[in-house]
Amino acid sequence: MIVRREDGAGGKYMSEFLKKYVFPKISSKAGEIALEDMEDSADFSENFVLTTDSYTVKPPLFRGGSIGSLAVCGTANDLAVVGAKPSYMSLSLIVQEGFEIEKLERIMEDISKAKDEVGVKVITGDTKVVEANIEIFINTTGVGERSEELEENLEAVRSYREYPFRWIRDKGAKEGEAVIVSGNVAEHGLTILLERESLNFEIDVSSDVYPVWKFVRKALKVGGITSMKDPTRGGLANALNEIAEKSGVGILVEEEKIPIREDVKFVCETLGIDPLSMANEGKVVMTVVKDLADEVLQVLKKFDENAEIIGYTTKEFSEVVMKTRIGTMKVVPPPVMDPVPRVC
After folding, report:
1. Of 115, 146, 177, which closes a domain?
2. Do the beta carbons of residue 332 and residue 321 sit within 8 Å?
3. 298-321 residue pLDDT tens
4. 289 and 275 share a domain?
5. How far apart are CA 59 and CA 66, in angstroms?
């Protein structure tokens, strides 16, 4: 047997690979969140969380960003969705021999701008130059601090119901909560696909890479957020299924409520790709106590007018189900893998 590309491409296959070959050898935890929980970050003390990620996007420069801005924002976003303020980061570069210095300078400029926008300090790192045909890989590790905004959010949630967690957890949702998406989906994955394959579609689309802490912290101050994920590999479909499975609830969403540009949807469908499975790099999906959902939504709309309540959690079924535009119901399964490899 050999390792397959799909074993590292997000979705069902990667989950099975990790559970079979990785977690049995190294499974452990230092705080509330265990490695095998497969959440975006894990805590190692009462006040700090840790996350790490490796970025292999191809091409490394793309409309709306680069592997540099993607690495900083992606790592910061994994901290933000558990309610932590992104604070410190490591940065390791693995660069192919012969890689153009002009491209490297653009990537480093994007790293510098992104870290300043996030408000994170890069305090350690490493650089390797290799002969392998990789262009450039970046590994980042981020440390996030417990925030006042998180405490305010937890207090608000607990005024409505029991919430036994110290961080925002994938398994935190309960029946009857609103499901909110912070903006249009599928744009990062489609941008990478179109640039990589030089596909001739007349569409003006760019990556949505963005540090979500800028709006997450405002939403946390309103309170009521019970689970939260950034829908990267596997897209919105994968994020919704993870929340549903871990929380033990079903999720009912309305197709007409899901924010997606019509031209983006058209191109995805023309290429035979489900836009709900396409990666995003500056969006969040969250569940929110019903009574606070509209107020949270209004905060999100100040940053992105396309933010929307797309559905609710339920105990009527255990899957993610979508009510289509024509009124029929269909199950939205977790993707077996990301439809576009090397997008992040």
Report:
1. 146
2. yes
3. 999 999 999 999 999 999 999 999
4. yes
5. 8
Amino acid at 96: Q
The CATH number of whichever domain residue 28 belongs to comes to 3.30.1330.10
Confidence class for position 56, pLDDT limits 50, 70, 90: very high
In a domain, 338, yes or no: no
Q: Are 241 and 233 in contact (CB under 8 A)?
A: no
**What is the rounded CA–CA span in Å between residue 13 and residue 337?**
6
Helix residue spans in the chain (DSSP H): 11-17, 23-26, 67-80, 101-118, 148-158, 187-197, 213-222, 235-247, 262-270, 290-303
- pLDDT tens readout for residues 169-211: 999 999 999 999 999 999 999 999 999 988 889 899 999 999 9
Same domain, 174 and 134: no
Beta carbons of 75 and 33 less than 8 angstroms apart: no
Spatial neighbors of 221 by CB under 8 A, at least 6 apart, are: 149, 152, 153, 299
Predicted model pTM: 0.96
pLDDT value for 113: 98
